[in-house]
Amino acid sequence: MEKSFRRYISLLFIALALLSVLIVTRLFGFETSENFRSPYLSLTPTDFWNRWHITLSTWLRDYIFFPLRRVLLRSRLPGWLADILPPLVTMFVSGLWHGAGWTFIVWGLSYGVLIVIYQTLGMGGAWKPASKFTQFLAWLVMFTLIIVSFAVFRAPSLTWLAVRGADPGALFVAVNKSGRMASLKHMTPKTVYNMLSKRATEAGVKSFSPHDMRRTFVSDLLDAGADITTVSKMAGHANVTTTARYDRRPEDAKRKEASGFLLDCLTQTESSFHLLTIILVSGKV
Fold first, then answer.
1. CA-to-CA distance for 45 and 86, rounded, in angstroms?
2. Catalytically active residues, by annotation
């Protein structure tokens, strides 16, 4: 719950920051490109990519889809190739753009196949539903396909997808020696610890304990600039003294952090002094 709350707060801050950027750019007269237009309300794969990551979709359309389609139409190849190859190649490049891995490639190609299927069924970019029920049904099918495709996108590997399957339950589960899932329940802390202990032994680490992971967790957060009070709460410590003992950063990093904190304090003090001077000179006090 705490992890989900922290993720929600992080996304909220990002959204507010982006909103602030949009407001500032509008104040200065700059027009920014619209990048997302309610993509989860899409009715077809073509509609989805007209709404999702619009700047990337536009680039792929102008520099890959249209040029390839023109070449195929001018060639002596069968006409159906001009309808099938451009979406497949374009979505393949889109998958590679998101990451150099098989999950990203399959994710991109799946949209290429879906675009071809929808176009074959007469549900291309210009398709409009005939009724509200048809619109709802088209949205429901497309939304389900989007969720399934993102499961492939976020999967560690295609092999894991084959082992895990599509049954409801935890994403990462215990697998027995035969390569099959033991259950769909979450792995216990002891199972995770045994896995990490085995990897530590293979890596030549002599001593290893759960506290080592906590120390690494605390040190990484502090090194990233997180406040020690916040880190203490996230680690479940009663006070910051315990958190300080978990800090395994080099002494140089600690001194640099302390110097930066002192500099911030001095800067704030100087700013306050200047503000007080201005107020006194202006006769407001």
1. 14
2. 98
